[in-house]
Design a protein that fits this description.
This protein has helices at residues 3-20, 29-43, 49-66, 73-92, 94-100, 103-109, 113-130, 134-147, 157-177, 188-209, 214-255. By secondary structure, it is an all-alpha fold. 25% of the residues are buried.
Length: 261
């Protein structure tokens, strides 16, 4: 539910990115319904991603109001969809129930600040390792560009956008740092925001210095991905077979009228 749900967030992000260039879709009824649906699913995606999409959508609307750009109605439909999605997710109560029924969460709530800090540092380290320290690299490059007064980079749209996406990614990650147990997959949306920030930054570097290293980096990542693919796929095949075997046992037990296995 992390990768497929983020596709709808990505759709909205692409929509907003085009909007910043004042490149809008036709404001038809079907487009409005599509944006409403995608916004709803994006809002329902995860406990941290949904609220972040509210913030991103709101910032997009406010920015265009500030720039006196008239937005098509489908952008408001997307925002309304996100609001309803987030409201539905938290209204169902699943997140609250999981939080209240987890003893580790309760113990952490009563823990000392130093113990909470240790848990957060552990998660921060895992996140940065999983991201190959891309957020740190991004921050350093942004600060170096900002330090160069000859560039007057502070008003550059790509600089602002890269910084904004990086901040969003770090906020998404820091929200999870406060949780006691966080699987790596939970950082999916935070990682995606940081990667998008890095891609925008690479495009900015090309504009300034004609350095287009993202092409070579993509090639290296593709080769690396193909090499490690068997290592990733094999455990999932084993996991699928275990689940399939368990479901078969449950199904056969139901046919025989058994209530326990």
């Amino acid at each position: 539910n992390y990768s497929w749900a983020f596709l709808f967030c990505l759709f909205l992000l692409c929509l907003y990115r085009k909007g910043l260039k004042q490149e809008f879709l036709k404001d038809t009824f079907l487009v409005k319904i599509l944006c409403l649906f995608c916004g709803f699913v994006a809002g329902m995606s995860n406990e941290n991603t949904g609220p972040m999409m509210i913030g991103v959508s709101l910032c997009f609307i406010i920015w265009n109001k500030y720039k006196k750009v008239k937005l098509p109605q489908y952008t408001y439909y997307a925002f309304i969809g996100v609001l309803f999605g987030v409201g539905t997710m938290f209204g169902l109560g699943g997140s609250v129930n999981r939080l209240n029924n987890n003893q580790f969460h309760k113990d952490l709530a009563n823990a000392t600040i130093s113990n909470r800090l240790l848990v957060s540092i552990y998660h921060i380290t895992n996140f940065l390792k999983a991201m190959y320290f891309i957020p740190i690299i991004n921050i350093i490059i942004l600060l170096l560009l900002l330090y160069d007064k000859k560039l007057s980079i502070i008003k550059n749209q790509k600089f602002i956008l890269s910084s904004f996406m990086l901040i969003c990614g770090l906020i998404l990650a820091f929200v999870l740092f406060l949780a006691p147990m966080v699987p790596d997959r939970a950082y999916y949306s935070a990682g995606m925001f940081c990667i998008i920030a890095f891609i925008i930054l690479s495009d900015l570097l090309y504009d300034i210095y004609r350095i287009y290293f993202i092409k070579y980096l993509s090639l290296i990542c593709t080769i690396y991905f193909l090499i490690i693919m068997p290592l990733v796929v094999v455990p999932y095949i084993s996991l699928y077979n275990n689940f399939d075997y368990r479901e078969t046992l449950i199904y056969q037990a139901k046919i025989k009228g058994k209530k326990e296995i």
